[in-house]
Amino acid sequence: MSPHADPRRKNVSDDWPANMTATRRTGHAEGGPDPTSPGIEQIRGGGETELLAVNADLREQVRLFEAALQNMNQGLCMFDTESRLVVTNRRYHEIFDIPADAIARGMTQHDICAMLIAQGCYPPSETLEWIEEATRAALQSDNGLPILRELADGRVLSVLYRVIQGGGWVSTFEDITEQQRSAARIAHLAHHDVLTDLANTRAMRLKYLDLIEATDPERPLLAMCYIDLDRFKFVNDTYGYATGDELLQAVAVRLRRNTRREDIVARLGGDEFAVIHRITDETDAPAMAQRLVDALSRPYEISGSLIEIGASVGVTTRPLHDVDIDPLLHDADLALRHAKAEGRGTFSVFDVGMSEAARARRLIETELQVALAEEQFELHYQTLVDADGGRIIGVEALVRWRHPERGLIPPLSFIPIMEETGLLLPLGNWILERACRDAMLWPDHITVAVNVSSEQMRQRSFGDTVLAVLAKTGLPARRLEIEITESSLLEESEVPQANLAVIHDAGISIAMDDFGTGYSSLSYLRRFPINKIKIDRSFMKDAETSADARAIIRAVSALGASMGLTTLIEGVETVQQLEFARLEGVGQLQGYLFSRPQPESVVTKLLYDDRLQAASEQ
Ligand code: C2E
Ligand code: CA
Ligand code: CA
């Protein structure tokens, strides 16, 4: 049966293309009578000249129509009600690469398709029956939607079948291979990381769904490795972004080489990558992680430079049927953080403890934000004593957190977290102002020492902030001491140095805290405007038992004296320690022997009592 054999439809093969031409001329697609065009009666009634003129007009229309048909960008075939070819165009021959005389008016669609199949135009899957069936279905629905059809040589055609009003049907063929290719390229780009051509996060999620759908009883688990490169920022900063990009590409190649084809390898952004793969046993995961660490840590040769970086990996495993990828990512990320905390260049396997630690950490972060807003912090002060006369010369401000349920929390339990979350800056400002305000309550010779973190010192405005606080509280500069640690000076950046200069020039004293625990570079003492060395309390603790500790205390106090710096030793708890420190020439003392850190009201009383006693002794 021909694909289109509706007996109600009129055979158009006889009066076409003349009737198409007439339709075009009147501009009425419906082909109905047009009041402005000359009717048949009129033509008949006219003279011979008129008839000739009309014929000439028709010929011209046919010529124009022919030109339009042959210059169309689409291949076209028009069939009559019996599916016999009425007209076709040059483009149709071009698309199917068939000679001009291969098909002729009157051939059925069936014959034409058979001929195209014989010529090998269609892939073997497209049989004659299939094509005819598809054509019939398209004509029946007549919905104006094209059908995509692939040719044997890989080109893609968009084919549209439309029923012609009044009978017959027309098919148009458009070669959309190029469009398809660029659409495929766009789709590829949307799913791939442009730099490394690995899957991007979006594609990773989709591929993950495919992976868990294709169940494999042999390998019922999957492992996710979350990878972060160590020292990548250093490479970027030192060699430039172009080298950094090449390095990321080289990393992608190594990841591919060390994974199976079916594994998902994705770049999550920056220098972070993920590998998801099926495993047989939980113990396969660490082996995989180790392999990745090793593979990524071998030196890279990039544009003539030998570059060494490392990789940290967090790994977690799951039964394959777990549909949600987010918990997997989350756990692998926690394990990764753990690996980094372990000193990088290694991997960590996730365990529940990490999750609990992270939860606790998040809780404390939120609590600290509240604490800052509600001013749950308080300052305690510990006295600094002159080694010669035993008089209090100043105090050090030490912060505490009064937790609504857990009571007083020591600074080392929250300061590092606040530093990481950026909360230490506002807290630092609060501490500075509070300490200066409290100091205004005390005798005029009492100094107040405030600990300043390296993050505060890195703030360009810090020096000015200190001066502003003095102006605001009215505390004279000579009564303030800023305690810094060596880590503030380690950086190459000029900001901490500029801050030190501002502070020093204003007449504020600067103390180097915890001396002896870090690099203890003596050059710092010369290069920066330091007034005081605070010898770390670990030396005092060891002084009784360790000759080395004693030698260091002695050397530092001698060095301080020769450089005109004040020396102070922390952690004086016993009379013996006090005697020893004095013997070694340490100028100032601090420790539980004199006073523990105390709230402002207690220390204020202590300071006035001490002044009274000093006066009475004179
Ligand atoms: P630090 O600056 O070395 O402060 C001295 C620490 O030694 C204080 O601990 C103090 O209570 C303790 N200490 C004093 N005398 C003795 C003693 O005789 N024996 C022993 N065993 N310990 C003694 P705290 O208050 O727990 O502070 C610990 C650290 O927290 C401080 O060490 C400092 O690094 C930091 N910190 C405290 N307050 C602040 C602050 O306001 N800002 C900043 N950035 N850091 C602070
Ligand atoms: Ca200190
Ligand atoms: Ca200290």
Secondary-structure blueprint:
Blueprint lengths: L17 H9 L13 H6 L2 H23 L4 E5 L5 E4 L1 H7 L12 H10 L9 H14 L5 E4 L5 E8 L5 E7 L1 H15 L9 H13 L7 E10 L1 H8 L1 H17 L6 E6 L2 E8 L4 H14 L2 E3 L2 E3 L2 E10 L6 H16 L5 E3 L2 H22 L3 E10 L5 E12 L3 E3 L5 H7 L2 H16 L7 E5 L2 H4 L4 H12 L6 E5 L2 H4 L4 H11 L3 E7 L6 H6 L4 E4 L1 H6 L4 H17 L2 E4 L5 H9 L4 E2 L8 E2 H18 L1
Parallel strand pairs: 11-12, 14-16, 16-17, 17-18, 18-19, 19-20, 20-21
Antiparallel strand pairs: 1-2, 1-5, 3-4, 4-5, 6-8, 6-11, 7-8, 9-10, 13-14, 13-21, 13-22, 14-15
Helix pairs in contact: 1-3, 9-10, 15-17, 17-19
Ligand C2E binds next to strand 14 and strand 18.
Keywords: Plasmid
InterPro entries: Biofilm_reg_signaling, EAL_dom, EAL_sf, GGDEF_dom, Nucleotide_cyclase, PAS-like_dom_sf, Rev_trsase/Diguanyl_cyclase
Protein name: Putative signaling protein
Describe this structure in words.
It is a single chain. With 618 residues, the chain is an alpha/beta fold. It folds into three domains: 12-32 and 72-179, Beta-Lactamase (2-Layer Sandwich); 190-351, Reverse transcriptase/Diguanylate cyclase domain (Alpha-Beta Plaits), CATH 3.30.70.270; 375-617, EAL domain (TIM Barrel, Alpha-Beta Barrel), CATH 3.20.20.450. Helix content is 46%, strand content 20%. The protein is built from 24 helices and 22 strands. The strands form four sheets. Strands 13-14-16-17-18-19-20-21 form an eight-stranded mixed beta barrel, surrounded by four helices. Strand 1 and strand 2 form a beta hairpin. Helix 1 (18-26) crosses helix 3 (48-70) and helix 9 (232-239) packs antiparallel against helix 10 (241-257). The longest helix is centred in the N-terminal third of the chain and has 23 residues, at 48-70. The radius of gyration is 44 Å and the shape is elongated. The model is unreliable at 1-44 (pLDDT under 50). The structure holds ligand C2E and calcium ion (CA) (2 copies). Residues 1-41 are annotated as: Disordered. InterPro entries: Biofilm_reg_signaling (IPR052155), EAL_dom (IPR001633), EAL_sf (IPR035919), GGDEF_dom (IPR000160), Nucleotide_cyclase (IPR029787), PAS-like_dom_sf (IPR035965), Rev_trsase/Diguanyl_cyclase (IPR043128). Pfam families: EAL (PF00563), GGDEF (PF00990), PAS_7 (PF12860). Keywords: Plasmid. Residues 220-352 form the GGDEF domain.
